[in-house]
Amino acid sequence: MTKEDFFNQLNQLDLDAQEYLRLNSTIFKDFAIGLLTLDSPVILSFISLNDWSGLKDFSLSKISLIEQKLQTMETPQSEINAFVNRLYELKSGFQDFYDKPNTQETWETLKTTLETEMLNAGLTQEYINDFVYKFGNNGGIKVYNNRKIQYANILSLLNYSFERHLAIYMYHKSCIAFAEYNLIGNTTQPLTYNVSTKITSLLNSIKSRNNTIYENVKDENTSSIIIRTKSLELWVSSIIETDIIPILAYAHQERISDTATFTADGKRAMKAGVLLQNALFSLSACKWISWTSKWHKELEPVKELFSAAQTTINSPIQYSGDRVAINTFSSNPLVHDNKDVIINGVIQNLVARHISPTKVISTAEVINDNGNSVKITLPYIKLDSCGLVNGSYVEISGKFLIANPEAANQPAISIDRLAIKELAKTNWTGWLRYQLRTIYEPIAHNLAVSFSLGLGNDGGINPIKYDTTYSKPTIFSINQKIF
After folding, report:
1. Phi, psi for 404 (deg, rounded to 5)
2. Which of 87, 376, 456, 469 is the most exposed place for a label (fewest CB within 10 A)?
3. Region 456-464: what's the mean pLDDT?
């Protein structure tokens, strides 16, 4: 390529990009602004009336519209990639032909003019020196990187639109799942297999398929990523309806039957809840990973995706603490004071108290099969907003304090919240959960809890009711991205 060819192609690229933005700028804003119409009042009406058929049909209609919009977004994504690829093909030309201003014959004259104009404008000498230095050295690959910024800005807007649509998509997917659960939850499920074994098998299958996707990402194998994520997405969507919802209903029925065992049936119901949460999170992760992997290799989102897989470990997130029998908190509390513990049992006496206009404290008791109990507490969050309610069988990680200030200085366990931002630095699942925090959270508020999912309009459906299926982006960040 000659120098003349390089600049001719670069100028044409700039003209084409400007024309593309002129013709399409309103389309990108429409993608985002279209989400200002909220469905939550309609959803809440269905939930309050226990109208599960109405809820399912409504969310199914919304899912169809959102899927069409997500598919439509792939066109501008491909178009942006095409512009970036044209720029990428000129990358060597920037190094060869785009000389730094301070290496050209006219530099001294240009430098004097810049310094004089900036001095007359009242700028400090320190600022002028810094600007002139950077301007003079802005050549070669630096110019190439600066040129990428214009495409990164468009990408940011399109990414934001995609993620907001995906968040609403997952909101409605959750609505459909819990509507189906409530439609069959009070009827006996004629399951012919060992349900506990089936739950473990499905959890292992989800894990195995996600491990394969992780390896594809680690290898930067985009074509395999797209194939594997689509395969897992379709499979998960299928088993939620054909397997997971019937399993949830079966586990619920067994747990409330006359022959129920406190611990075994409780843990099975809890694992069934974890299964649904894992399936829904895998669905959201598949869609997000597939979308992100399709960006051009020179753009930051796909670079960050590949880098994360190469710098993190692929292992489950573990709760901290030793497993402790509930009766020992009353018989020997000093042994556990100020220590991280993990307990299992059933929630009762859950209360959320407003102790000031800006602070709420949730408290409850966790009881074991012998009636022993220990208090749990959580500040600033209504515990039931994550789906955990009276009667839930739970596993909870937290710190036990003999004089817990959040429980009127009485003995209580303060529930842990997973430090997802910190986990994201070393753990692949943590990284994904951090990236998807404004799209879908498998457990609201990242609480270190697992629990069975109750039926009705006050139970597993509560994250939908309280609008906690994902963390909300700030208004500032929304305005920045849209406008």
Report:
1. -85, 115
2. 456
3. 95
Query: CB neighbours of 421 closer than 8 A, spacing ≥ 6?
Result: 434
What are the DSSP calls for 257-280, one per residue? STT--HHHHHHHHHHHHHHHHHHH
For 373, the 3-state DSSP assignment is strand
Tell me how far apart the alpha carbons of residues 247 and 464 are, in angstroms, rounded to a whole number: 21
Using DSSP, state whether 82 is helix, strand or coil. Answer: helix
| pLDDT tens per residue, range 246-263 | 999 999 999 999 899 999
Which residues lie across from 379 on neighbouring strands?
361
- Rounded CA-CA distance 111/139 in Å is 15
Would strands 410-415 and 373-379 be described as parallel, antiparallel, or unpaired? parallel
Q: CA-CA distance, 470 to 167, in Å (whole number)? A: 7
What b-and-e string marks burial along 201-221, b requiring 16 or more CB atoms within 10 Å of the CB? ebeeebeebbeebbebbbebe
- Count of H-run helices and E-run strands, the chain: 17, 7
Query: Residue 443 and residue 440: Cα distance in Å, rounded?
Result: 9
Q: And the tokens for 282? A: 């895998």
Which of 51-55, 148-152, 228-232, 476-480 is least confident? Answer: 476-480
- pTM here? 0.90
Distances (CA, A) of 195 to 271, 430, 447: 11, 29, 27
Mean of the pLDDT values across residues 195-223? 97
Helix (H) or strand (E) holding 122: none
Do residues 448 and 480 touch, judged by C-beta distance below 8 A? no
First to last CA, the chain: 39
Which pLDDT does position 483 carry in this prediction?
A: 31
**Segments of 304-441 assigned E as strands:** 322-323, 339-356, 359-367, 373-379, 393-404, 410-415
CA angle 339, 345, 348 (to 5 degrees): 105
Q: Estimate the crossing angle of helix 245-255 against helix 141-184, to 10 degrees.
A: 50
The rounded distance, in Å, linking the Cα atoms of 186 and 179 is 12
Query: What pLDDT sits at residue 151?
Result: 87
